Amino acid sequence: MKECVGMLLAGGEGKRLGALTHHGAKPAVPFGGKYRIIDFTLSNCTNSGIQTLGVLTQYSPLELNRHIGNGEPWDMDRRSGGVTVLSPYTGKTGGDWYSGTADAIYQNIHFINQYDPEYVLVISGDHIYQMDYQKMLEQHKQTEADATVSVIEVPWGEASRFGILSISDSLRIFEFEEKPDTPQSNLASMGIYIFTWDKLKNYLLNDAQNKDSSHDFGKDIIPTMLQENHQMYAYRFDGYWKDVGTVESYWKANMDLLYEGSGLISEDKNWRIYTHDSNLPPQYISQKATVKDSLINSGCFIYGNIEHSILFKNVRVEEGSMVKQSIIHPGVTIEGNCILERVIIMENTQIPEGTIMQISEDKEPLVVNEEILGAMLAPAGGDK
Q1: Structural element, H or E, at residue 333
Q2: Which of 9, 115, 130, 225 could form a disulfide with 2 if both were Cys (CB 3.0 to 4.6 A apart)?
Q3: In whole angstroms, what is the distance from residue 33 CA to residue 39 CA?
């Protein structure tokens, strides 16, 4: 028996991220110079002592499956429990793509039941944050809750993008509305839930039979439980949390890494973000190069100028080039005399000599891969 089993929803298509998710799921997108987005949630589980985790994939999962592997970087390569990748399948109890977040858990009831847990933690693989789930679980036990929803205060102007809760002084939830036109509160659901498994299982079974349901936690399960007066509490989170659902928010979250005190990366050595180690040689920065307020990963060779940017492994920047407020994915080569500002260059792209791409602050940062770059250069007959 496991006290708490984690279920990580990692099937997000991430359409608003454009080219960043053309060939892979949103949780597999590179982030922060050496990580992928899902590393934050996986590391939260490791640091919180969640040792049994099902990862539910769906959209273009190859890169994500390869990255997770047997779970070794997160100490989840275990015979009992550990990490298990769960894809949609055809069988007696399941036979279609997941139609919603609740349906994804429903189709994997058999996985949870084999551990006979008391509680189930439901989390998402496409948010950037650091959180101790054990503290949330302790509150869930103390309040004898049937469901606990992690919440964070968001700007009032953004509240209509989220599931919004109203709570009492004791944190008891008395109202929940999914993406309201006129929010009554700015307390937003983070999409992180702890349920008492016996209660949730019954709701999942009933919801699966309801043809009018969208089979979603925010739209169906939580409002129904609230309507039927179950013990439902909010867990307040006051750290850094960002849903990197757009190119702009992805770029901003990366740039937040460059500000001391952003709270994005903890300095606590007991709370680390884990990922695969590339085992590449250290970065090389030429005497002619300048690097300011930037993160430069291993295997990089820098001969140009880098300012307020994030460079992943194996990036080469030649002499005379300037990279500013940009995110450069692994294996990119930037030839000489280029100017790149507010751009995101995807993996293994080669930027020809003299290329200039400068995006103003009032526009969304530009995402570039080999295909997009070719289309940009083709109309001018190859001129840069």
Answers
A1: strand 333-334
A2: 115
A3: 12
Q: State the Cα–Cα distance between residues 280 and 227, nearest whole angstrom.
A: 55
Dihedral sign (CA 108, 109, 113, 115): positive
For 285, phi and psi rounded to 5 degrees?
A: -120, 115
pLDDT of residue 105: 95
Q: Position of tokens 């973000």? A: 273
Say if strands 187-196 and 232-236 run parallel, antiparallel, or are unpaired.
unpaired
Q: Are 200 and 122 in contact (CB under 8 A)?
A: no
Distance of alpha carbon 111 from its chain centroid, rounded?
A: 23
Residue 199, H or E segment: helix 197-208
Cβ neighbours around 318 below 10 Å, total:
18
Residue 228 CB-density burial (10 A; 0-12 exposed, 13-18 middle, 19+ buried): exposed
323 strand-pairing partners: 306, 340
Query: Averaged over 356-383, what is the pLDDT?
Result: 85
With vertex at residue 251, the alpha carbon angle to CA 246 and CA 257, rounded to the nearest 5 degrees, is: 130
DSSP structure class, residue 244: -
Question: What is the distance between the alpha carbons of residues 95 and 91, in angstroms, rounded to a whole number?
Answer: 6
| Single-letter amino acid code for the residue at 139 | Q
Question: Is residue 214 scored above 50 in pLDDT?
Answer: yes
Q: What is the pLDDT averaged over residues 240-255?
A: 92
pLDDT at 1: 63
pLDDT category at 267 given cuts 50, 70, 90 is low
